[in-house]
Specification:
heterodimer, A: mainly beta, OB fold (Dihydrolipoamide Acetyltransferase, E2P), five-stranded antiparallel β-sheet, two-stranded antiparallel ribbon, 7 strands, about 30% strand, B: alpha/beta, globular, Thiolase_C_2 (chain B)
Chain lengths: ~140, ~375
């Protein structure tokens, strides 16, 4: 499996995720959240930022079901889903992830035909600290 | 030249050239590039020694030094490379048109050579470190361009009621035109609705036929001033308007973090393109729309103003994209059925239409829109005869 290759801007996201927290970079001056993380606020050009903790709630904005040819580790789990989640606390910040029945389930464990755009989801974290998504009401 | 200073009709494409297209060609990319460039110069009736400007894509492996030495170009005074993969196609011509209009050069060649059919696919390279933006996508299994565009396509279908039949209409129009084009990879291979609907998935909701070909091949074209064009061997095809587009807060390919992910770079390019044009979308006789994936066509139809937002799917109904339809598209077969050479074949096909020599000729075609990849920082051209 591919691990996140982090940079200085993105590293805090993964550090918090490893602690089981979903946080997004937020301007310390104008309070605008931004994603992906970057050095400067596009709204007020401030270089100071903080990492705001979110509820981890969201809705499925879109999803795909990849089939091979894929990288071997992913092909072994295909077909699986990839979802985009629109965050309840920070609309227009949309995180990519996977809908799973439980935090450490394989990528393809959730039946693709049960995925619906608009469904409410909740962030959970697997043992590697990767955010996953479960249905709020399974 | 009408209007104020600028590129409008100041330059023309006077030569086009291409190699054969195939899944596998024996020659390397550099050799193919040389062949395409020499073919385009021969078509124009211009000697290699007269070329003083070059433009290509940043992903082009043959660099200016190698190409210029190999085919015997003159002293170069302008050279440019455009980023973002298929988004760069039309910008190569746009850069040369601007340079020539501004007096920085006199004879420009744009080209693209690629062995995507027999070469590696970039997304399969796991030994190279992933670019850091991929930290937000790849670990979750969003691996390939097809997956990234399928995500937008699913949302588009959900929001506007676009269907797989609409995507099939795009694939079919391209295939029908390829069936008329002996140079196309899909020349003798018709497509049916049943083949489309029962084909294997690549990334749901996109199936095999929603994806472009994997092709080896090279193309080039020659650009000179409008004045010089009058003395060339072929009928000039004028660069009427040209634009690039990188919207505010855009994020290439996985533009899911924008306020409005379904209005992509084509909308930005279109605003500039039409602002400097003497005609409107209603006056476009034929369009070559970048089609690495079928959903890019309805998204681009909206972006370039052929229909309203959300109407791109419905626009494809009733044979609208076929010859004789409201807007014939990708008349050589496009990336889906002629060849996928990062969209350069769309430029040359636009020239063929306006010369009146296309294999699926739109009668009396005098205006043509050519676009580069939607979903990445893009570019577009309005050509006229």
């Amino acid at each position: 499996m591919l691990s996140p290759v982090t940079d200085a801007d993105g590293a805090p996201f993964w550090r918090y995720a490893a602690q089981g927290e979903l946080r997004v970079q937020t301007c310390a001056d104008c309070a605008e959240p931004r994603f992906p993380p970057r050095p400067c606020c596009p709204h007020c050009q401030s270089f100071t930022s903080e990492w705001r903790r979110l509820s981890g709630r969201g809705r499925i904005w879109s999803y795909v079901v990849p089939h091979p040819p894929l990288l071997p580790d992913y092909a072994a789990q295909a077909p699986y889903n990839v979802i985009v989640v629109e965050l309840t606390d920070a609309p227009r910040i949309r995180l990519i992830g996977n809908l799973v029945p439980e935090a450490n389930a394989p990528l393809g464990a959730f039946p693709p035909d049960r995925i619906r755009i608009g469904a409410r989801v909740q962030a959970v974290f697997d043992d590697a600290g990767l955010p996953r998504w479960i249905l709020e009401r399974p | 030249m009408t209007g104020g200073p600028g590129v409008k009709d100041a330059t023309a494409i006077v030569g086009i050239g291409q190699t054969p297209f195939a899944k596998r060609l024996p020659e390397d990319e550099r050799t193919l590039a040389c062949r395409a460039v020499l073919a385009a110069l021969d078509d124009a009736g211009i000697a290699p020694g007269e070329v003083d400007a070059l433009a290509s894509y940043t992903m082009e492996e043959t660099d200016e030094v190698e190409l210029a030495k190999a085919v015997g170009l003159g002293d170069l005074t302008f050279f440019s490379k455009v980023g973002f993969g298929g988004g760069g196609s039309c910008a190569t011509v746009a850069h040369l048109a601007a340079a020539i209009a501004a007096g920085q050069a006199t004879v420009g060649v744009a080209w693209r050579s690629r062995k995507r059919g027999s070469g590696p696919r970039p997304w399969t390279n796991t030994t190279a470190q992933l670019p850091t933006p991929a930290q937000w996508t790849r670990p979750f299994g969003l691996l390939r361009p097809a997956d990234e565009i399928a995500m937008l396509a699913r949302r588009y279908m959900h929001e506007y009621g676009a269907t797989r039949d609409h995507l099939f209409n795009v694939a079919l129009a391209c295939r029908n035109r390829a069936n008329q084009n002996p140079a196309a990879i899909m020349y003798d291979r018709p497509l049916t609705r049943e083949m489309y609907m029962t084909s294997r998935w690549i990334s749901e909701p996109l199936c095999l036929y929603d994806n472009c070909l994997e092709t080896d091949g090279a193309l080039a074209c020659v650009i000179v001033s409008a004045e010089r064009a009058r003395d060339c061997r072929r009928r000039p095809v004028y660069v009427h308007s040209a634009a690039q587009g990188l919207p505010a807060q855009h994020h290439g390919m996985v533009n899911y973090w924008n306020d409005d992910p379904l209005t992509g770079p084509s909308w930005t390019a279109a605003r500039h393109l039409w602002k400097h044009a003497d005609f409107t979308p209603a006056d476009v006789d034929v369009a070559q729309i970048y089609d690495a994936f079928t959903p890019l066509v309805p998204l681009s139809l909206e972006g370039y103003g052929f229909c309203g937002r959300g109407e791109g799917g419905a626009f494809t109904e009733g044979g609208a994209l076929e010859i004789g339809g409201r807007l014939p598209v990708n008349t050589g077969g496009g990336g889906l059925s002629e060849a996928y050479v990062h969209g350069f074949n769309l430029i040359n096909e636009g020239v063929k239409q306006l010369r009146g020599i296309a294999t699926a000729q739109v009668p009396g075609a005098a205006t043509c829109l050519v676009t580069a990849g939607e979903g990445v920082p893009t570019s577009a051209l309005l050509l006229r005869s």
